[in-house]
Amino acid sequence: MPRTALFSSLVASSRTFRHLLHSNPYVSNDEAWTAKKIVDFLAGGAGIPGVRGIQPLRTGCGGHGLVYELRGSLCKASEEYPPTVLLRSDIDALPLTERPSSSSDAKSKRAPVSSRPGAHHACGHDGHTAMLSAALLWLSEHPEILGGGRVIAVFQPAEETGDGAKAMIEAERAIAGSPDASLFGIRSISRGAFAFHNIPGRPFGEVLFVRQGVAARASTGLEVRVVGAASHASEPHLGRSPMPVLAALAQRASTIPQEVQRTSGQSLAGPGGAALVTPVHMHVGNAGDFGVLPASGKLCLTLRADNTHAVEALVEAVRDAAEEEATLAGGGYEIAMERIEPFPAVVNSRGTTDILTRAVTAVGSSSSSWKSVGDFVERCGATEMEKPFPWSEDFAHFTSECGSGALVGLGAGEQWSALHAEDYDFNDELLPLGAVLWVEIAREALKPTPQ
Ligand SMILES: [Zn+2]
């Protein structure tokens, strides 16, 4: 099949595939159906006549994770560690109910709405999956692009809960027997790890990245549980309600980073901005129990900063503040804290972002060989960010395991609905752009290095 026709067929198939995933979303750690559909799509060559399809190297990796391996046409079978680049897509949806915008313009541009209430691909991981799938099938048809190198492609579950990347790495270590021999280890992935995330609100085609340093912030959820003593509501002096402790802590939360700075003299602010302690949920007693002074309650907080060390300083400061408020409320409380969904910071490395900028140039330059496949390539350009993305990403586990990496944003359009919004849908126009960018990243990463 001619190059342009094959590419158009791949984009059309991956769009249909993306819509299938979008209308059947499965949340973190429940992606068995999603993983099976990815395997089917890739094994069947996207349903395109003449495309051979590819089989996974691993299934069920760290839950419902998949790993694919592609070898270049010059890659020696005997070589244990050929030059290798890791390409990663996340595959999970969010526990939200989709409510699409009612405007007909928006309707015509979107995938069919989720058929599973309470689950919504509201972060575009359906689109990330389709982009990487299209790129892998293109590369398997053109192994000369990879030369003497190899691609390890990862479809990662449970990104939203922050445990999928870690689980995949641990599962691989268990198979390999030692961290050094792991498929994701530094010796195996010698040319860096890459991940894309679509970024609504930024111009379409903008490729956003931090050249070197923190690219997405560290964070953790923190549940603060306070236990006092129950009593009849008519005799509150005989009990100890956790209410005043939790209310005071919730009010004080946002000023805790400044408190740390005042007491330690050390600022927790980094390039990403100020450190944050944000109350997100509070629960005390039971609604309807008007006769009971409650004994226990909890406050949930999200802590965010540029690195794990600063997040740990915030955790300790929250503990101190909770104990102080408990004493002020009369004492006699038990306080327990639990970290939930901790994310380390993603750190981009210079060598990897240099590969990225060369790939962006190859796609978007006036002499781009991709011009014939669509005018979307003309809108592709690199934008270096001064600040990291404000959110967190568990891709951090791959960058630290592989020794180098880059988290890359793809501008989805200025008018596009925000990530995690009820009416969010992935912008299908990004599919061909993301696919060619993946192909060029693989080509640039695996070029022989000068001796
Ligand atoms: Zn996401």
TrEMBL record:
A Pfam family recorded for this sequence: M20_dimer
Protein name (database record): Peptidase M20 dimerisation domain-containing protein
Classification via InterPro entries: Amidohydrolase (IPR017439), Bact_exopeptidase_dim_dom (IPR036264), Peptidase_M20 (IPR002933), Peptidase_M20_dimer (IPR011650)
Domain Peptidase M20 dimerisation residue range list: 215-326
Organism, as annotated: Lotharella oceanica
GO molecular function, one term: hydrolase activity
Annotated region described as Disordered, given as residue ranges: 96-124
